[in-house]
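Regression test case RT-17, inverse folding.

Input:
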């Protein structure tokens, strides 16, 4: 009988939790929102979505082409401009631009730190220190720097900071270590500002997608990335691993376990972004994708030896490094 009560309470809690998330804030025409990384992918789709809803959007683009393409398909409410989040001067220019476009006395309702890169694939020792730094320059320091520069405008409006982390910020993919490191950092930073911004009436929210089939994880791109990572590795490390291991890493077999679990429902991530920005009662975290919810997160609660064994089980065809297999 006790078990029935527990199950009933859990179902009731989940039902109430879903119902309270339904109301949206409305008055979208009064909402001014900054998004970074709008050239392609999630940022591009979110900028278009918010523009269609009637929000005023400041869309930061890394490339001139991304900026021009976005302007062609958007209304006059959307301001696309150049932004490199790894460059402090570029962020400060963006701040000046946004201030010049905001109505007098108005702040920002939201910052969406969406810009990110993935440029290395392979065992940690294949990857040069500069590649570790590059990931953090964009994915972590870029998030922190952009947030700190624009925070006074968020406080002015009692708005929201929405940061994209990843399931890779909650677990570790052993061949994507620089990316994971940067996303773990985003998790920590967002947890901190969520607590410390509460007295100001502001919110900080994490978006944590699993693997979604966007351009950043295109199969051909990842295969090429793995080969380039190996080619740049220290000669001693390359000899230690050997060509058989390198050829496997730059093959479809190595990526099958990851990409086969990936979702094509890109709209799920955009929906989460939208609710984080415009819902009356947003969640602190949005974990998105069946792989994130039902595989990677549960593994985090297992003993390390068991979690490691499960990861190895999904990658049984991986060869041993040359120096080990002799």
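Golden output:
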């Amino acid at each position: 009988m006790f078990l029935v009560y527990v199950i009933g309470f859990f179902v009731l809690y989940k039902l109430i939790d879903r119902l309270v998330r339904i109301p949206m804030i409305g008055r979208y025409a009064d909402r001014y929102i900054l998004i970074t990384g709008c050239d392609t992918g999630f940022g591009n789709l979110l900028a278009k979505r918010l523009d269609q809803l009637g929000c005023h959007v400041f869309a930061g683009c890394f490339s001139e082409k991304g900026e021009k393409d976005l302007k062609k398909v958007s209304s006059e409410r959307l301001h696309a401009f150049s932004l490199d989040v790894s460059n402090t001067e570029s962020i400060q220019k963006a701040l000046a631009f946004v201030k010049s476009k905001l109505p007098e006395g108005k702040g920002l309702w939201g910052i969406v730190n969406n810009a990110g890169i993935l440029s290395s694939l392979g065992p940690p020792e294949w990857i040069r220190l500069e590649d570790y730094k590059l990931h953090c320059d964009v994915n972590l320091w870029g998030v922190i720097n952009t947030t700190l520069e624009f925070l006074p405008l968020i406080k002015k409006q009692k708005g929201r900071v929405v940061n994209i982390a990843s399931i890779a910020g909650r677990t570790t993919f052993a061949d994507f270590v620089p990316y994971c490191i940067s996303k773990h950092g985003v998790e920590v930073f967002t947890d901190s500002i969520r607590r410390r911004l509460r007295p100001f009436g502001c919110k900080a929210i994490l978006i944590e997608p699993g693997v979604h089939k966007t351009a950043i994880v295109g199969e051909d791109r990842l295969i090429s990335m793995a080969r380039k990572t190996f080619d740049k590795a220290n000669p001693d490390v390359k000899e230690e691993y050997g060509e058989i291991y390198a050829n496997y890493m730059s093959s479809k077999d190595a990526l099958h376990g990851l990409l086969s679990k990936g979702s094509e429902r890109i709209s799920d991530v955009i929906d989460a972004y939208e609710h984080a920005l415009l819902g009356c009662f947003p969640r602190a975290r949005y974990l998105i994708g069946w792989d994130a919810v039902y595989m990677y997160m549960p593994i985090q609660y297992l003993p390390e030896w068991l979690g490691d064994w499960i990861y190895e089980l999904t990658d049984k065809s991986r060869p041993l490094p040359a120096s080990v297999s002799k």
